[in-house]
Design goal:
With about 80 residues, this protein is α+β, with helices and mostly antiparallel strands. It has two helices and three strands, in the order H-E-E-H-E. The longest helix has 10 residues.
């Protein structure tokens, strides 16, 4: 049986968004770009413990970071 994209993506554990990092997600960084997103829109980057600060600093320096929360599960998560 050949699996489609939906089946394959369900098997991948949530990983850190830092380039080259494959560690499991521990944090979610919620952000938006106010020049192109509505104020209520939130995009999500996931971070491991080692990259939480660097990814957050990158977003914060641009005025994009809105909130950092622990990542518990991908159940009900919106991919953006």
């Amino acid at each position: 049986m050949v699996e489609g994209p939906a089946e394959n993506s369900a098997q991948i554990a949530p990983q850190c968004s830092a380039k080259g990092c494959r560690a499991g997600a521990e944090w979610q960084l919620l952000w938006n770009n106010p020049k192109i997103h509505t104020p209520e829109r939130r995009k999500t980057w996931l971070a491991c413990g080692d990259h939480r600060t660097t990814l957050g600093s990158f977003l914060d320096a641009r005025g994009f970071l809105r909130e950092v929360t622990p990542f518990a599960s991908s159940d009900g998560a919106v991919v953006s």
